[in-house]
Design goal:
Blueprint: H1 2-13, E1 19-22, E2 25-28, H2 29-44, H3 50-57, H4 75-100, H5 104-114, H6 123-147, H7 153-166, H8 169-176, H9 187-194
Antiparallel strand pairs: 1-2
Length: 195
């Protein structure tokens, strides 16, 4: 069942029309993201059970089908989009789990983790949030910075601090122990934000 649902998630993400380059190769964007989520989960929480491996892999499943442009281009619209995404990803993950033969209890656990239910109180939701934050810092923060040349230092410090606040103490320790690769041009800014 586990192998079947992982295959279904990978097949779903391989349909992404958007691509990203990695090591000179082109990958469907959300497929590459899902691989990075799984790889980071293995590094951060090597004893994570099968359901959390599914939740991490499905964190952004078919994200391109719910674009930011479907919502108002303001702060409220951004938050509405994020909330809708959580439900979209969680529902699709559960649908694929059902196809693979998982029971309702397992489906609910993954749904709650991917939908970020009771974050800070639900360890599953917090784990998915931690892994997503670690993946963002290691793989996506620099690209995000390059895409926002109008953001000043103060704005960046705010973004870094908000990312940090989402993470657990365990994830903080993981970063501070040098277990992820920080984006070199942003290291000074990251240290400043965390002072």
């Amino acid at each position: 069942m586990f192998n079947k649902v992982i295959t279904l998630i990978d097949e779903a993400n391989n349909q992404d029309p958007n691509t990203e380059q990695h090591n000179g190769e082109s990958f469907p964007k959300e497929y590459l993201y899902s691989q990075r989520m799984s790889e980071m989960l293995t590094r951060f929480k090597p004893d994570a059970d099968a359901l959390m491996q599914i939740a991490a892999r499905a964190q952004h499943i078919q994200r391109w089908k719910s674009p930011r442009s479907d919502f108002e281009m303001n702060k409220q619209g951004y938050h509405q989009w994020r909330s809708a995404l959580y439900i979209f990803h969680a529902s699709l993950a559960v649908e694929l789990m059902k196809q693979a033969g998982f029971n309702d209890t397992d489906q609910n656990r993954v749904y709650n983790a991917v939908a970020k239910k009771d974050i800070k109180r639900n360890p599953d939701s917090q784990l998915v949030e931690d892994v997503a934050s670690l993946v963002f810092i290691e793989h996506y923060m620099l690209g995000f910075a390059n895409a926002k040349p109008d953001y000043n230092e103060e704005k960046w410090i705010g973004i870094i601090r908000r990312t940090w606040q989402k993470m657990s103490d365990e994830a903080h320790e993981f970063v501070l122990a040098g277990n992820i690769t920080l984006p070199t041009p942003l290291v000074g800014l990251i240290h400043k934000a965390l002072e």
